[in-house]
Amino acid sequence: MRMIVMKFGGTSVGTTDSIDSTAKIVAAAVEGQNQSAGVEGRPDQGSESPGVLVVVSAMGGVTNTLIDAAQAAAAGDETPYRDARSQLLVRHQVVAGQLIEDGVERAGLGRLFDNRLREFERLCRSITVLGELTQRGLDVVSGVGERLSAPLLAAVLRANGVKAQFVDAGELIITDDQYGNASPLMDSTPDRCRDRLLPMMQSGVVPVVTGFVGATEKGVPTTLGRGGSDYSAAILGAALDADEIQIWTDVDGVMTADPRIVETAQSMEELSYEEVAELAYYGAKVLHPKTVTPAVERSIPLRVLNTFNPSHPGTSIVEKTRQLHHGVKAITAVRELRLITVAGRGMIGVPGIAARTFDAVARQRANVLMISQGSSEQSICFVVPEAEGDAVIEALKIEFARELAQHMIEEISNQPDIVIVAVIGAGMKGTPGIAARVFNALGEQDINVIAIAQGSSEANISLVVLQAEADEAIRAIHDTFELGNGAD
Ligand code: ADP
Ligand code: ASP
Ligand code: MG
Q1: C-alpha dist (Å) from residue 2 to 52, 209, 241, 342
Q2: Is residue 65 within 6 Å of ligand 2 at its C-beta?
Q3: C-beta of 254 in contact with ligand 1 (< 6 A)
Q4: Which atom of ligand 2 is nearest to the CA of 228?
Q5: Could you say which ligand is closest to the alpha carbon of residue 233?
Q6: Burial (Cβ within 10 Å: 0-12, 13-18, ≥19) of residue 401
Q7: What reaction does this catalyse (predicted)?
Q8: Which end of the chain is more exposed for a tag (fewer CB within 10 A), N or C?
């Protein structure tokens, strides 16, 4: 049985119309799979096993609503969660009312929505009573959206003649207890997935699985990080050794830049795992950064497709691209960052300052996105998320208290409101002069480059610019390399 995983993001299931489109796309895929199985001379298997697994995110905006309500509850404001409960009930029921004719099915769904949202309200009430929102509590609340949208989509699929069944990923994806950013345990997850899903699929059923969520071995709900449904699809695809993982979204694939910033950005036909991993890690929201890992391990091709333009071929992501591409393919950016500099003439020749700096940073569990060390050895600078900046500065001041008092280290300074702009393309490796062209493009626009790093991967040149100049920088680089003109 050829097997495909189809993941639909919040943008693909945000409204009645888009859920309708999603259901039609899945129904067509099931039909296509059945036909090709028939052509291959396996009608016995083909008719029974469409080999399609669906993963779905919460309806667009729902996760934010849930999180905001829980945070307000912790601060003592009960209005947002009460409003959210009734608003979410209506929003899901309206779709069910418009797309599902069967009264029994609709009533069942109505009860399910009501129960889940009552549970959400109960949780928020206890958050208010405790006056505290733990990461563990937040994971229960933020996963509610997928636990509403997946049963809804399964029922809409049934209304479209597809045998579909809702499955909660808490039964499939077993994770560690890093709430808010959990990682799957790969010794138990693949077996769970196969045991639960393969019999269903072999009997001709399309499982509709909640994206984003998992559970610990003890069954405590976890989430895989914001935007994590892409990662869910890849985990499930790898566990089942799927033939393709499809990410259905609201643009024609992975584009040369964020289309909201660069109007002329265009979709790319093909990318390597390496390129897409860099793009995702450096801010291209279209794919969760961890999505590539499970796919790479099993060499499963990924494809990014548009729910609102399903005949477009989208972007195919493979191990090795067919055509050698010389140079830059795409530009992306990570925002809300802070640049921290440890500087002083007393650092020269003193071993271990860099190691101590990064030990102190690691103790804060801060994520270092970029490191740049001047040739002079007088300073080390690195970039961390804005939210982690204060804790890192404090940790460094404690670590280097003696050096600061003795003026061996003169300052630990920080610059807020900066952005890393990443210029990406595997073909940059052997192509000289790219960095110079990037700098020229920025120089012409009077954009100041605060720091540069090349090295985390040869497919990436990263530079730090001020937040206020970031969009202009992206557009200038995109123009210089003529990425919007079909110069692929
Ligand atoms: P979904 O709900 O399908 O998961 P997301 O909003 O998470 O969708 O991701 C899709 C969005 O990512 C697009 O609408 C686009 O605005 C944004 N985006 C940012 N960078 C890129 C890029 N390089 N290519 C495509 N889309 C991008
Ligand atoms: N619904 C989750 C979020 O908004 C997961 C996802 O959309 O992929 O982060
Ligand atoms: Mg997404």
Answers
A1: 9, 19, 10, 55
A2: no
A3: yes
A4: 8
A5: 2
A6: exposed
A7: L-aspartate + ATP = 4-phospho-L-aspartate + ADP
A8: C
Distance CA 430, CA 326 (A): 8
Region 12-19: mean pLDDT is 98
Q: Which residues make Cβ contacts (< 8 Å) with residue 358, sequence separation at least 6?
A: 368, 382
**Among candidate residues 74, 108, 80, the one with its CA nearest the CA of residue 93:** 108
Give burial (CB, 10 Å; 0-12/13-18/19+) of 198.
middle
Please return the burial class of 452, using the count of CB atoms within 10 Å of its CB with bins 0-12, 13-18 and 19+.
Answer: middle
- Please state the rounded mean pLDDT for residues 432-451: 92
Across 281-287, average pLDDT: 94
Q: Do the Cβ atoms of 484 and 259 come closer than 8 Å? A: no
Distance 135 CA to ligand 1 centre (A): 26
Is residue 58 in contact with ligand 2, taking CB distance under 6 Å?
Answer: yes
- Assess whether the C-beta atom of 211 lies below 6 angstroms from ligand 2: yes
Q: Same CATH topology for 4-34+49-250 and 329-481?
A: no
10 CA closest ligand 1 atom index: 2
- pLDDT surpassing 50 at residue 487: no
Which residues participate in the annotated binding site for substrate?
Answer: 146
Note the CATH architecture for domain 4-34+49-250. Answer: 3-Layer(aba) Sandwich (3.40)
Cross-sheet strand order for the sheet of 370-373: 370-373, 379-385, 330-343, 411-424, 460-466, 451-454
Residue corresponding to tokens 């790898």: 238
Distance CA 90, CA 41 (A): 47
Residues 75-131 have pLDDT tens digits of 999 999 999 999 999 999 999 999 999 999 999 999 999 999 999 999 999 999 999
Sheet holding 4-8, edge to edge: 164-167, 206-210, 52-56, 4-8, 244-249, 302-306, 315-318, 270-272
In the chain, where the domains are located: 4-34+49-250, 329-481
Ligand 1: which of 153, 226, 251 to mutate, judged by most atoms within 8 Å of the beta carbon? Answer: 251
Distance 458 CA to ligand 2 centre (A): 30
CB–CB of 269/315 below 8 Å? yes
Fold assignment, 329-481? VC0802-like (3.30.2130)
Instruction: For residue 354, name the pLDDT band (cuts at 50, 70, 90).
Output: confident
| Separation between Cα atoms, residue 377 and residue 388, nearest integer Å | 25
Q: What are phi and psi of 343, to 5 degrees?
A: -140, 150
**164 DSSP β-pair partners:** 206
Give the predicted TM-score (pTM) of the model.
0.93
> Ligand 2, closest atom to CA 145?
1
CA distance 113 to 358: 47
